[in-house]
Amino acid sequence: MSNTPESRKALLYDALLGFLGFFSFLAFIQAVVNLFQPEPLVWPAVLALVLVVSTVVVWRARGRWRQ
Question: Which residues cross the membrane (predicted)?
Fold first, then answer.
């Protein structure tokens, strides 16, 4: 793999997308499990929302950058 600025930027986007995607998935599962608790809390859903929105923003920015 070359060491150009473009490849570094692509690697940065891919790493950030993987990190956000993984934790978005975990937060979403936690929010769904939380729904079935006797007294569900709000923060798991808010955390999942923030992470999913962040993932989508990075995904769209990566797509715009590649074109």
Answer: 12-36, 42-61
Report the C-alpha gap between 20 and 12 in whole angstroms.
Answer: 12
Kindly report each contact of residues 27-34 with a partner whose C-beta sits within 8 Å and lies 24 or more positions away, as own/partner: 27/51, 27/52, 28/52
Its pTM stands at 0.84
List the chain domain ranges: 5-66
Q: Residue 52: pLDDT above 60?
A: yes
